[in-house]
Design brief:
By secondary structure, this protein is of the alpha/beta class. 35% of the residues lie in helices and 20% in strands. The strands form two sheets. The chain has a six-stranded mixed sheet, sandwiched between helices. It has a six-stranded parallel sheet with strand order 9-8-7-10-11-12, with helices on both faces. The protein is globular and about 60 Å long. The protein binds NADP nicotinamide-adenine-dinucleotide phosphate. The site of NADP nicotinamide-adenine-dinucleotide phosphate (NAP) has 27 residues, from helix 4, helix 5 and helix 9.
Length: 291
């Protein structure tokens, strides 16, 4: 691997487990951060079949792998193989980071804080009204992290029941949280007085689709799409045209990764170095990736 520090008998291994992982940006991103800090770590990706997840987690323990990221489809299932799970991860119901502390495996979820920090790079969230599209794993982490901070959270999902259940689980924590079906009428009603729109569905990934009609986008609205392939999704391109502030999903990938990195190594990495490494791997020029 180009530019890696010398790997020796003391090198600590960090890894990603998921399927598929071959196109993941995490290895380039984390290895760039490792190099910049001159740490004796290396980050690799392992493709793990669902039926092998338990054995893979035991492998982390028995090989003394320092930590791992967990991605689709294992984020929920992995919980049952861990020794401890943080309160955030337990409430979200999913783990994206494992830390191996001397053979004790602890699970964390850094997706929500990664999303929150992405938003905070561009806007204040306190007291704002947020419209969140989706009620899957990523949306759950974001909803959990934002509730209590924002004044109002409207969760719109294709499967209405999931949005309603998620909203119910977040009740009584300081924000008004409502779940409803994702429809143009509900979007119209909710976006009218919204400050922030977040797409946490997979719509727009490797496609030219958007769930939000262009005429609902207006200056003053902050639009955050957590999808980052392509970097500028149709939703973000429409939002730029409409004069919205836009935030791409690579910020969340980098910032959730930075939180994981801190948990594994004790160092908060240089997020510019991580983002630039990821942009390069995506084949995007830096000035195209401003957000
Ligand atoms: P997930 O748990 O499978 O949830 C998928 C969500 O998308 C569900 O709410 C689903 O609605 C909705 N959806 C899928 N197809 C749809 C369609 N045609 N129309 C309307 N809604 C649709 O996935 P996830 O883990 O939450 O990930 C969601 C996306 O976020 C993925 O693209 C993933 O790559 C991205 N992501 C990015 C980051 C980052 O760091 N930037 C981190 C995590 C995830 P139903 O409930 O109705 O099925």
């Amino acid at each position: 691997m180009e530019g890696l520090a010398i790997i020796d008998a003391s090198t600590r291994v960090l890894c990603l487990i998921g399927k598929p992982v071959r196109h993941s940006l995490s290895p380039v991103m984390h290895n760039a951060a490792i190099r910049a800090l001159n740490l004796n770590f290396v980050y690799v990706a392992f493709e793990v079949e669902p039926q092998d997840l338990g054995k893979a987690v035991e492998g982390i323990r028995s090989l003394g792998i320092g930590g791992a990221n967990v991605t689709m489809p294992h984020k929920i299932e992995v919980v049952k193989y861990l020794d401890e799970v943080s309160e955030d991860a337990r409430k979200i119901g999913a783990v994206n980071t494992i830390v191996n502390e001397g053979g004790t495996l602890k699970g964390y979820n850094t997706d929500g804080v990664g999303a929150l920090k992405s938003l905070e790079m561009f806007t204040d969230v306190d007291g704002k009204k947020v419209v969140l599209l989706g009620a899957g794993g990523a949306a759950r982490a974001i909803a959990y992290t934002l509730s209590g901070r924002v004044s109002e959270l409207a969760i719109l999902n294709r499967t209405e029941e999931k949005a309603v259940n998620l909203a119910r689980n977040l009740a009584n924590n300081g924000s008004t949280v409502r779940g409803m079906r994702l429809s143009v009428r509900n979007l119209e009603n909710e976006l009218r007085d919204a400050d922030i729109l977040i797409n946490a569905t997979s719509v727009g990934m490797e496609s030219n689709e958007s769930l939000v009609p262009e005429h609902l986008l207006r200056p003053g609205l902050v639009v955050f799409d957590i999808v980052y392939r392509p970097l500028h999704t149709k939703l973000l391109r429409d939002a730029m045209k409409a004069g919205c502030t836009t935030i791409d999903g690579l910020w969340m990938l980098v910032l959730q990764g930075a939180e994981s990195f801190k948990l594994w190594t004790g160092h908060y990495p240089d997020i510019r170095i991580m983002r630039n490494a990821a942009l390069k791997a995506l084949g995007v020029e830096e000035n195209e990736g401003k957000g």
